TrEMBL record:
<feature type="region of interest" description="Disordered">
    <location>
        <begin position="325"/>
        <end position="354"/>
    </location>
</feature>
<protein>
    <submittedName>
        <fullName>Peptidase family M23</fullName>
    </submittedName>
</protein>
<dbReference type="GO" id="GO:0004222">
    <property type="term" value="F:metalloendopeptidase activity"/>
</dbReference>
<dbReference type="InterPro" id="IPR016047">
    <property type="entry name" value="M23ase_b-sheet_dom"/>
</dbReference>
<feature type="transmembrane region" description="Helical">
    <location>
        <begin position="26"/>
        <end position="45"/>
    </location>
</feature>
<feature type="region of interest" description="Disordered">
    <location>
        <begin position="367"/>
        <end position="386"/>
    </location>
</feature>
<feature type="transmembrane region" description="Helical">
    <location>
        <begin position="52"/>
        <end position="74"/>
    </location>
</feature>
<keyword id="KW-0472">Membrane</keyword>
<keyword id="KW-0812">Transmembrane</keyword>
<keyword id="KW-1133">Transmembrane helix</keyword>
<feature type="transmembrane region" description="Helical">
    <location>
        <begin position="473"/>
        <end position="494"/>
    </location>
</feature>
<dbReference type="InterPro" id="IPR011055">
    <property type="entry name" value="Dup_hybrid_motif"/>
</dbReference>
<feature type="transmembrane region" description="Helical">
    <location>
        <begin position="420"/>
        <end position="438"/>
    </location>
</feature>
<feature type="transmembrane region" description="Helical">
    <location>
        <begin position="450"/>
        <end position="467"/>
    </location>
</feature>
<feature type="domain" description="M23ase beta-sheet core">
    <location>
        <begin position="203"/>
        <end position="297"/>
    </location>
</feature>
<dbReference type="Pfam" id="PF01551">
    <property type="entry name" value="Peptidase_M23"/>
</dbReference>
<dbReference type="InterPro" id="IPR050570">
    <property type="entry name" value="Cell_wall_metabolism_enzyme"/>
</dbReference>
């Protein structure tokens, strides 16, 4: 990383921007869990005030808008942020993003997944005995290339907390968001920039970062036809369409926000480094087309811990350093062009094929010509590898039913909650059972997908029983209990799958030395 203005020389605007960037509100969101006992026990009703901390969920939308304002009106002497040269958002687009927040609160699938991410961080902390892997302690087991060809721009992501994707929840701590920009830093063409086809990265091939075996895919989530802060109202997963690949025991890559219908692999497929697995899209929680990429320690996204990674075969540019150098030369003609650049960015890891740590604001290009040609066809399959088990989806359905019960029950009666749950069962059952049938998918896959509506059906039955019997419990109590039961089921199944996949991983680890020899490096 480059040296930036020190605290003593930075302007108040620059210091405020730095403070906002380092502020991590998701730790405060975790305090909202303290409100749960207030709904379970009348004597602890005062704890319900902690539900206000849930509002810190809004911070990811507030922070970019504040940064945009300060970046636009910053004093010329302010320290340059590494991403200031990238032009992805305007005030209009952030306003649209705020408007999209409203329908998100009415999407129980997304709400339940967000809550599972929060609790999943606790599961990951327990799994790692309170210490999440970091760049000093984690020993990377596989040699990774960039999951794209050509030159892409790192919008968010770093091994440093200051420029990380999001430090909390821990499942996305070391994730990266990639787009393609022109030399001026724009991610889309000037003509009609909000149509997805006008974004430079849209529909570009996404590649396997290393050899491995596919353990989970999603290819049926819809995407909005426009970016500019818009996302699809009926998304079923914050990842949209995605592929999860196992590269070693407890080391998985996750490639997210793919174009619907573009996924070229299935669970059980062997994939080779550089093989095409899908195309860059705009599905899930996405303000514009981009690739979300991360390495994680678990096949289940919600309870995983993101892992710090470095890449090999990468050429990097740091546009903010180049601009600082040009500005310095203009201010002092005695300086040679190029002064102010940082030769230590990126960081190469000694002895590991010149592995590079990339960071937000850089333009990165894959230059390893030893890779095999990318392929669009899946390799031979392994049997009995899918992670999307019926029980896991069942737990998801129960947790979604709990979220509907909890939040709708705040303002509505028992009968309204039961009606909405029953409607969810009907809609979910039709989609997950009839949809795959129309698409010609097998009976086994249809039955697996019915786990969600069956979980919702159990939640509906539970709420109906609570409403029609002498059982004394509030709607929030029943909803919270259902969510925790569903989450517990999901965690149990996911942990079983993680251990099973680790045991069954059949020597497919690409250790650095073997990987180097195989590619002739």
């Amino acid at each position: 990383m480059t040296d930036r203005a020190t605290t003593e020389t930075a302007t108040p605007s620059a210091r405020l921007r730095s403070a906002l960037r380092s502020f991590e509100p998701m730790y405060l969101v975790a305090l909202s869990v303290l409100a749960v006992p207030g709904y379970l026990f009348d004597s602890l009703a005062f704890l319900q005030v902690f539900q206000l901390f849930f509002l810190f969920f809004l911070w990811p939308l507030v922070a970019p808008l504040v940064g945009l304002v300060f970046g636009r009106y910053a004093d010329e002497t302010d320290a340059t942020e590494p991403t200031d040269w990238i032009h992805m958002g305007t005030g209009r687009e952030y306003a649209i993003g705020y408007a999209m927040l409203v329908p998100t609160f009415f999407n129980p699938l997304v709400m339940a997944q967000d809550l599972r991410q929060l609790l999943g961080s606790a599961v990951a902390l327990v799994r790692h005995r309170g210490s999440i892997p970091d760049r000093e302690t984690y020993e990377q087991r596989v040699s990774y290339r960039l999951p794209v060809d050509g030159t892409w721009t790192v919008v968010t992501g770093s091994l440093e907390r200051e420029y990380s994707h999001s430090w909390f929840p821990v499942n996305q701590r070391y994730a990266y968001d990639f787009v393609v920009t022109d030399d001026a830093g724009h991610s889309a063409t000037a003509e009609g920039p909000t149509a997805v086809e006008n974004y430079y990265c849209y529909d570009e091939p996404i590649l396997a970062p290393a050899d491995g075996i596919v353990v989970d895919v999603s290819d049926g989530d819809p995407e909005a036809s426009h970016g500019g802060g818009l996302s699809h109202l009926l998304k079923r997963d914050i990842r949209g369409n995605y592929v999860v690949i196992q590269h070693a025991p407890d080391e998985y890559s996750s490639l997210v926000h793919l174009v619907p219908g573009s996924v070229a692999v299935e669970p059980g497929d062997r994939v080779e480094r550089g093989q095409r697995i899908g195309r860059c899209g705009h599905s899930g929680n996405s303000s514009e087309p981009h690739l979300h990429f991360q390495i994680q320690d678990h096949p289940n996204f919600e309870i995983a811990a993101s892992l710090p990674i470095t890449f090999d075969g990468v050429e990097t540019e740091s546009p903010w350093l180049e601009r600082e150098a040009v500005d310095s030369t203009a201010a002092d003609p005695t300086l040679e062009e190029g002064d102010g650049t940082d030769d230590q960015s990126p960081t190469a890891v000694d002895g590991e094929r010149d592995r590079v740590a990339i960071t937000a604001g850089q333009r990165v290009t894959h230059v390893d010509t030893c890779d095999d040609e990318s392929s669009s066809a899946p390799s031979s399959q392994q049997s009995d590898r899918p992670i999307s088990s019926w029980l896991e989806r069942f737990g998801t359905g129960v947790s979604v039913g709990g979220v509907i019960t909890f939040f709708v029950g705040i303002v509505a009666s028992w009968s309204t909650v039961v009606t909405l749950l029953a409607a969810s069962v009907a809609i979910g059952g039709s989609y997950w059972l009839v949809g795959p049938l129309v698409r010609g998918e097998g009976v086994g896959l249809r039955l697996t997908r019915t786990g969600v509506p069956i979980g919702l059906a159990l939640a509906t039955t539970t709420v109906w029983y609570a409403a029609s019997s002498t059982f004394v419990a509030g709607r929030q109590t029943v909803g919270g209990a259902l969510f925790l039961v569903g989450f517990g089921c999901l965690v149990a199944v996911a942990e079983y799958d993680r251990r099973r996949l680790g045991r069954e991983f059949d020597g497919f680890e690409a250790v650095p030395d073997a990987d180097s020899q195989r590619h002739g490096s």
